[in-house]
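Changelog entry: the TonB-dependent receptor record was regenerated in this release. Current contents:
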Amino acid sequence: MLSAYWSTAQKTGMLTGYISDPTGYLPGANVVLMGSNQGTATDLNGGFQLGGVPAGKQKVVITFMGYEDRVVDWEVKEGINDLGVISLTDINNNLREVVVKSTMAPSQIKAMSIKKNSYAIMEVMAADAIGKLPDRNAAEAVQRMQGVAVARYHGEADQATVRGTPFAWTSTLFNGTRMPSANVYGSRNSILDAVPSEMIQYVQLAKAITPDMEGDAIGGSINFVMRTAPEHRVLNISAAGGYNQRSKDGTYNASIVYGDRFFKDKLGVMVAASIWDRNWATDELALTYNTSLPDPVQKYSVNTMLAKRYMGKRKTYGINAGLEYRFNAAHRLYTRLLIDKFDDVRPVYESYYDFNNSRYQVNYRFSEYQSPLNGIELGGEHQLSDKLKVDWLASNYVSKFFIDTPPTLDKSLRGLPIATFRQKLAGGFGKLSSDGRKYLHFDAPDGVGDEAESIKPYLTNPEDLLDPSKLSLQQLVVIQLDTKEHDKTGQMNLTWNANSRLILKVGGKYRSKIRESHNQTVQVWLPGAAVGIPNSPSLVPMSSMQTTDFPVSGNFFNEIGAPFNNLIVNPITKNQLFDTFSPEFLDENGFHNFSSASNPTTIYDGSENVLAGYIMGIYDLTDKLKVIGGLRNEFTKLTMNGSQYLAQEKKIVALKAENNYNALLPMLHFKYAINDKSNIRAAYTRTFIRPNFPDLNPGESVDVTKTPGVITRGNANLKPTFSNNFDLMGEYFFSTIGLISGGVFYKDISDVIFSDVSNESINGNNFIVTQPKNLRKARLVGFEAGITRRFRNLPGILSGLGVEFNYTRIDSQVEVPRSVDESTTTMDKTRLPNQSKDMFNAILFYERNGLMMRVAGNFRGTSVEAINQQLGPDFYTHSGKNFTVDFSGAYAITPKLRFFVEINNLTNQPLVMYLGNDSRRLTSKEWYSIRGQAGLRWNLF
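Regenerated structure tokens:
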């Protein structure tokens, strides 16, 4: 009898299949064996595998938020049992109605279901939600998520960070794999403006990771899941046109998404293509201060005041293609292809008041920043038995950033070209302080000065006006910016369903990364007449060169009353700029190459090989309590090749450095289901972040074109930063498509890396020296809360109202050592770089009878952006608070055709940077104006 019992008990099978509704696959649906606690949830593609199911007649219960439960009867046999595609029906057919009327309800349900069933502490956003917000790239899409802040680059978001940590502390993944980054500033954080939002199927934001995720994620992990083959044929087309208020020019945006299945649904195809072409403009006011002066008061005196206009053209385009072949219910292969590119054509017009040298300065630059991101993946999933599953993935991705101008220069010297004109004032500037320097009035020792936004050229000689005939060409510069990262990755995971309560996972990943970079190599040409070379030709006046009209001069700094119209001068043309770098022009006008002999030190390359492995268990301790725990280990082997310039010997010496380290990362999660609507989660995770590549460069670079000069040193001995993270979160899901969540978190951080800024005197010349260093300890504590709610119980037309709101409050502290004198060191306390105390998103939406409107506000509080270890907190650079408001609206003309409109930056919110703790002491202030577009989306299938 006992033998027969065990023989019967050991006969089990695996149930597989897909859950869908008429619009596509449903992720996060629950699949449970009736009468037991044995169950699973569908993956992002709507698929499920439920192992260890006893053989014989069984009932499977499928539940999904907002849908009627479905019970499937099945005769379970040993091995793989394919249930095929199981369709669900939404309750009272309400969701089907709102789908054709183009609301966000289905998207919110999918996102909430994934969040509810995830093992990690996670936020989720689905593609159709992204498409209904005025966000055109990946960074702008994720800014709507709880705890996320973004950096804006001339009006468009390009980087994202989680929970207020530095941007490099948030890992960016595509389909679960860390992406290469050609960030020109060296950060490992990927620049996301190269990724059109149309390429994205889901965004998963993991705030507390599990051992099967990459461990270099102190802030969090943002995983962009690319589109995959649908269940039914899909063909969507979108086209829009728009306008930028400042550039007075047009924009257009178009996309197409196609997916289908062939050969009895075995072969799935998905192709998404997108282009976003727009003109853009920015006005920036920038001030520099004499922080290197020994007098403590004069450190706050103004060195230069710059009025800058950007007037460019950007193009973001990409193709995401995927193939999937299902051999049977147990085996499938897939491949994904990503081809993205961001082009930024950028003429820049700069005019200065140079107070220290009593002169005007005008710069003109023209360049095309190119940022391609290309890659391919090949993977497979294989259900080897009813208990054992294997999945694997191999990928090859390349990210680049480069500038290939001017064409008149040898290709090896090309980069960002800048022509500098100067005009000496005969009488100098007036309204100076008693010490002869320019101040903002609140800094001046005798109160003589201006507001930062209204500095004027008070002239001793009224005829000292900006004059093209007096502006002479005195410097030509090319800044070489060329970075490439190439990642090759292979990984494998094994999942073993040990029994109805325990799932074990083990896996490994190997990544080979190669990075090559010109770290802002500066090439300089100076006219002989300016540097005292005998018999040199006279300096070239701007008036003798080919010029063009200043772009859209009528709205130059309109937001502050157009105070800098006197700095408007017709710039030289693009072709004239390029011609000034031709060998003929340089020779005829006596320009000589004065590039630093240390230039080769800015070029470096490095290889980084990472071997990672993990073991992880998911155990149902009770019917309500699930424990997820395990261990991840990542070993990093880094080799850096750089160089150093020996001034006395006048030669370049090659340098090589290695930095190998191991990261052992224990993790433990608890998920307690109070009921089917409520979860409480607690987690301990240990994570880390690797140093940035430029920081590890064993050499140093010298830029003598700036006053004072700038020396950038690497530090090959940097340690990685580690963090012990503690999270406690709760979530409640409403019956009518809604969610309340909130919790607290704490991070105990060691070996924080920061950029130290100090002053040095070398051979009588002053230099500002930057070098990365490790600090000892830091901490971060915060809480977050969010709500998504639809007010369907309100009467009449008010039933279409809804709200999404999330708020994050964060505090951090890090101690920075500062030498007061040769024998005394003090510890300055400050917040972590990039960390804002307050962040929130607020969205008010209305959806009814085919009409959808959304007003979305995004707030990021003040943050420290750069630490000056030598001078202390009064000279830290801060980013000011920023609140942007966007609008989107749509109307379903027919069930398949929708008109939409999108407007960004309704409040024309500027981006502000300032020195110390006084926001009046501006270092930069940028205005972008309002932009928008309108168009049609046509869902043919």
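The chain has nine helices and 48 strands.
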